[in-house]
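ok, trying the design again with the full structure, not the truncated one.
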């Protein structure tokens, strides 16, 4: 069937559908990863976004049971230059198109994704609508312009879990990174970590589990008092979608947890932690999304190639530099990629050390979290 992608600036891209017969609005963004479309599509951080892949050929490896980062695709819609339906891969269990149709996700192929990406880079991420069928262009443009923007939007409530649960799964594929200094098959895990689910990726949970943690995942709105009653050894703040400034309930809870337990945040968790510490966030022009972003670790002067997916950033000038040290910076545009508290066992990064997809340069950050947990456990109770 025919399909259209209409941007709020009036540009219309015409192609054909390979997903669900549906119409959806969202923020149109682009991802520069060469591989890993299944992980990208199932990452809850993409909730509310129409994702464009800059890699021109998508679908040739199908979909499988191992590469999901949540239970289903979470993007609003999907945009590619050329979709390949005749997949070929020894792990494949079906086609990408069938997977999207089963989840009700519309997708379009056959458009000039290079032009679309250049437009987003020049103009910025925009509201858009993807429609399957022959709806009038002017009507679609009106719907796109009247749709909600990403600023001020709390999407965490759409992706967080409904009830607390324990996570015990490991990455059992041949491609799994090894556990560092523990036997993850032992039932007596050393540290209990409460994970705030703002849209957590499964590979974050797998990496924490591989480092010997016992995990309890809780909904995003869980009060700090309830978390403290669980008496965890540490607290993890997950990735997630939307505007961090709109998640006030999480900011309050994090503020109440500061100084009580070691805290590690990733992506949205990094932004929420900054806000809880009195900092500010702002919306990036077109965001960082891909598996090839260079980040400098200012503590070691080493460069990491990182996996990223965010549309907001922390303003480093808004942080109290008497208490907070900037630890990581993006080498493409100089934006903040990490900080740590100088007096509390608290640190966070903007990017994704668990990868999926992407390089594993930053997996050491999980070991750093474990070090904080061990140090805190060694401190005598007051």
């Amino acid at each position: 069937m025919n399909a259209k992608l209409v941007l709020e600036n009036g540009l219309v891209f015409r192609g054909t559908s390979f997903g669900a017969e549906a119409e959806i609005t969202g923020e149109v963004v682009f991802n520069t990863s060469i591989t890993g479309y299944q992980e990208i599509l199932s990452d809850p951080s993409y909730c509310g976004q129409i994702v464009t892949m800059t890699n021109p050929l998508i679908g040739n490896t199908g979909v499988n049971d191992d590469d999901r980062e949540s239970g289903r695709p979470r993007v609003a819609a999907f945009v590619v230059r050329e979709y390949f339906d005749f997949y070929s891969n020894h792990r494949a269990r079906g086609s990408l198109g069938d997977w999207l149709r089963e989840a009700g996700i519309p997708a379009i192929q056959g458009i000039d994704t290079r032009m679309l990406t250049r437009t987003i880079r020049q103009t910025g991420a925009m509201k858009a609508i993807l429609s399957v069928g022959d709806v009038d262009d002017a009507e679609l443009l009106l719907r796109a312009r009247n749709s909600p923007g990403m600023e001020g939007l709390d999407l965490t409530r759409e992706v967080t879990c409904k009830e607390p649960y324990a996570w015990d799964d490991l990455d059992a594929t041949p491609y799994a990174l090894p556990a560092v200094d523990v036997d993850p098959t032992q039932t007596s895990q050393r540290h209990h970590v409460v994970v705030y689910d703002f849209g957590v990726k499964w590979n974050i949970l797998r990496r924490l589990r591989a480092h010997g943690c016992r995990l309890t995942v809780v909904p995003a709105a869980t009060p700090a008092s309830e978390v403290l009653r669980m008496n965890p050894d540490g607290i993890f703040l997950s990735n997630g979608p939307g505007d961090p400034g709109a998640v006030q309930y999480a900011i309050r809870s994090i503020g109440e947890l500061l100084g009580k337990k070691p805290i590690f945040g990733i992506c949205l968790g990094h932004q929420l932690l900054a806000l809880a510490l009195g900092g500010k966030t702002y919306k990036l022009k077109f965001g960082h999304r891909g598996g090839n972003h260079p980040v400098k670790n200012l503590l070691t002067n080493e460069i990491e190639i990182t996996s990223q997916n965010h549309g907001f950033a922390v303003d480093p000038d808004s942080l109290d530099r008497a208490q907070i040290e900037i630890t990581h910076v993006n080498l493409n545009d100089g934006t903040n990629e990490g900080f740590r508290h100088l007096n509390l066992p608290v640190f966070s990064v903007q990017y994704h050390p668990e990868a999926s997809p992407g390089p594993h340069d930053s997996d050491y950050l999980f070991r750093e979290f474990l070090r904080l947990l061990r140090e805190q456990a060694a401190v005598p109770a007051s």
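Keeping the full-length input from now on. The chain has a mean pLDDT of 95.
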